[in-house]
Amino acid sequence: MTTKNADAIVVGAGWAGSILAKELTEAGLKVVMLERGPDRATAVEGAYPDSIDELRGAIRHRLFQDLSRTTVTIRNKIGQTALPYRQLSAFLPGEGVGGAGLHWSGVHFRAAPDDLALRSNVIARYGQKFIPEGMNLQDYGVTYDELEPFFDKAEKVFGTSGEAYKINGKVVGNGNVFAPSRSDDFPLPPLKDVYTANLFRKAASDAGYHPYSLPAANASRQYTNPYGAQMGPCNFCGYCSGYDCYMYSKASPNVNILPVLRKDPNFTLITRAHVMRVDLDSTKTRATGVTYLDLDSNKEVTITADLVVLGAFQFHNVHLMLLSGIGKPYDAQKNEGVVGRNFVYQTITTSRAWLPENQFTNQFIGTGGGGVAIDDFNSMNFDHGPHGFVGGSPVWVNQAGVKPIAASTIGGGKDAPRWGAGYKKALVETYRHAMAIDAHGSNMAYRDVFLDLDPTWKNTYGQPLLRMTFDWQDNDIRMNRYVVSQIEPIMKALGATKYELGMLEPGKPFDTRLYQTTHLGGGAVMGDDPNTSAINRYLQSWDVPNVFVIGSNAFPQGMGYNPTGMVAALAYWSAHHIRTTYLKSPGPLVRV
Amino acid sequence: MALAGTAAFWTADEFADWRQAIAAEAAQTYTPRYFTPDEWRFLEAATEQLFPEDETGPGAKALGVVDFIDRQMDTSYGHGGLWFMSGPFQSGPANLGYQLPYAPREIYRIGIAGADRYCRDHYGHAFADLDHPTQIEALTAFEKLPIQFDETLPAGIFFEQLRTNTMEGAFSDPIHGGNRHLGGWVMLGFPGARADFMDWVDQYGPAYPLGSVSISGETA
């Protein structure tokens, strides 16, 4: 065992970790960032044409978590034996420098203000009884107005393309009429609509909805961000989701932050460093540093530091807290404890329209964050009263570029054969003439949906795996089915020759074999009450105040929007308060 | 040069080198590395039923799908290196995913033997020697009926492995040994490694006009 020293340790080299490392080095701290995967640079692994190999990329998971070393176990309900998630399928965490921020798509939202105080808003509008039994509906403890400067900062760092609706209270453009006011415009204009997005824009408008361009961290023009990092214009190559962008157009920690950070003498990046635990002193209220396994030498190394930032993927942060004894583990039977509580996901289903034979949808053309959406059924933008569910879904065409192996898996529609001549015929027709419309919905938190340590399975380092207890709940199934039914007028306005609405089916359990989304959340949520949140409104552990936990683990429930924009804003928000308050007087930033 | 399909291929740093190596290898007559002659016969017949030559486009044989699968058996994927393969192994409901101790190459070894045994028992011949309607009947049974091979491998698991790898072989870049002469992509209308559509983003309605190109520069 060797020991090193730092002022601050950051665990994980994705967006959360890279933002915190940048901010803390700017504050003059000596920062060590630990990443268990390999180093990755766009100039090497992202280089065209090797980077656009679908088999090695999205199919064999070149940039994703190495499950052979560690995974999670999953079950649908308490009392069932959770089994290991042995093959990447339902969700795809990243690994290596850049994390999931290297292989993400690029959809870059601000949070809907109503979502940040969802419990208060639902009670104010519909009364306490509207919240179903067993739902742990909570507020974030932070408002949109407080976060606005940090949403703005993140967009400027990411080079986000989009169209504003309101700036400083004045209507300025054709953006999302449901979006809150902004202090400044998007740094780049919106991306062009691909054909299917343009069809959706017109059809949604004809159906009486309010279409807008998706905010995308895929640069619509050449761009230099405030750090001096440069991005190239997106050429719609279609290799965003699952790939590193060879055009330097999709924002990633590797392109937008790390080139600058790597040059800072106060910054040290250690890769192939698997963090085993955060080390605590005998009072269990102070972290002394972390211990990691050097995957090359197979030896444990301890680093001491005054400040520890967990910036790994959502469930890895929760796992590390449980392994380290930071905060009280959640007990579902008693509904007590906070670490593992409010584990959430998103409720996403895809519907499909087929166009006439003379209309080619060219689905291989695309960009990960681009497209056209409506928010008419998201957040609190519609009256939930008659429906009796909490939550909502944006609906969109987000044609990220459909590659052939993925297309062969999707196949030719619900009733098409899965193989043989009939399969081929339907596949070709679908690839050439179909388009997808997603309902990208929220997922609420429930008393019996949570994370804890598995009693049986261990990773290759001998540590218990994290156990997920998750199933779809009635509230979210009904939300999904209602919103998807509202897509029908769009299908008719599109001139589809046929269409299929994709909905969750009541009674059908969560299926780990089907890709749904990597937007996992919660498990160590932020809030104002230490009895229902693991971290305070500044993402600081209530129990170990020199540990900050940054990521979508902080979300009390799964929102309809993609999480990365919110994660980045929370990272800058937390970093701001560490820099302006915590470093001057280390200790709890919130006293109860 | 025997790099294609090996574990080294997946970790090679010298990208230009392996690309060239594989392109050169793909042009040569392929010698099976993993599958036995009997297994090869099964795979050629079965993949051609899953992905037949017809008026829509080329079939598995013309596309080199079995070459592709054989190469994959030698990769980290084929050896189970991309999956969590630590025990204990315990069965559970299907929706909790794959729980067997077998890597893809073992699924094929057990599965093909089991499939041929099933065909001999039910139809009197190995799969490859059955007429086409009977082959389709057998594959449908593997896909849908609760058959166990070697008492440990559900036929459905084997079928899905074969179906998945067949489609991968038809539609992955030709550097991996399948999609020969870009036949799978041409059939679909996928332009391959062009990966630059700046000038076609807002051309609304017509088919993209340029043909397919592979990572190694082959065109169709």
TrEMBL record, chain A:
Gene3D superfamilies: FAD/NAD(P)-binding domain. Residues 6-41 form the FAD-binding domain. Residues 227-345 form the Glucose-methanol-choline oxidoreductase N-terminal domain. Residues 455-571 form the Glucose-methanol-choline oxidoreductase C-terminal domain. Transmembrane segments: none annotated. One of its GO terms (molecular function) is oxidoreductase activity, acting on CH-OH group of donors. Keywords: FAD, Flavoprotein, Oxidoreductase. Pfam families: FAD_binding_3, GMC_oxred_C, GMC_oxred_N. Belongs to the GMC oxidoreductase family. This is Gluconate dehydrogenase. It comes from Acetobacter aceti NBRC 14818. The lineage of its organism: Bacteria, Pseudomonadati, Pseudomonadota, Alphaproteobacteria, Acetobacterales.
From TrEMBL, chain B:
It comes from the Bacteria. The lineage of its organism: Bacteria, Pseudomonadati, Pseudomonadota, Alphaproteobacteria, Acetobacterales. It comes from Acetobacter aceti NBRC 14818. It holds the Pfam family Gluconate_2-dh3. This is Gluconate 2-dehydrogenase.
